[in-house]
Amino acid sequence: MIFCGLEIADVIEKNIFLLKTSAESLPYLWEKLGMKEFLLKLVVSDWKHLNGGLLLLRLFAGGMMLTHGWAKLSSFTDLSVTFPDPLGVGNTFSLVLNVFAEVGCSLCLILGFVTRLAVLPLIFNMAMAFFIIHGADAFAVREMALLYLGMYVVVFWAGGGKYAVDEIIRQKLIRRVIP
Prior knowledge:
8 helices; mainly alpha; single chain
């Protein structure tokens, strides 16, 4: 049989030769082009970048929640009458607790100051929003609270990371305790 002016046996033989030579040169190209390191960085967890990831998570979660808290703080007088009161402490006090969590604790989260302590009110706040306030709503309405809840649980679990005020305080305490 003729295929593009060549016999099929010749085409197959040339393709096998190309596959064989490229397979033999693949490790050379792999090392030469640095593809191995690049692919390993994409696939394998790299602990030295964990602190940067925690910083980005803190900045994102804290910054996004800060916008919600700032909106509530800006319209405090209007919201204090109609704000939900799931704890039975009054609408105004529930709003105060919510603004404290969404503004004060978000600022602490962004800075990485008492990080694990700061996310506790945020975790409680988002759990209340997901399970109680929007408990009867469709999942699409509750989804945002669950996303925030997940991010805050991760920060609580992992801590603030190396790029946090907590770490500066920890380093100073270590130097003071260990001469």
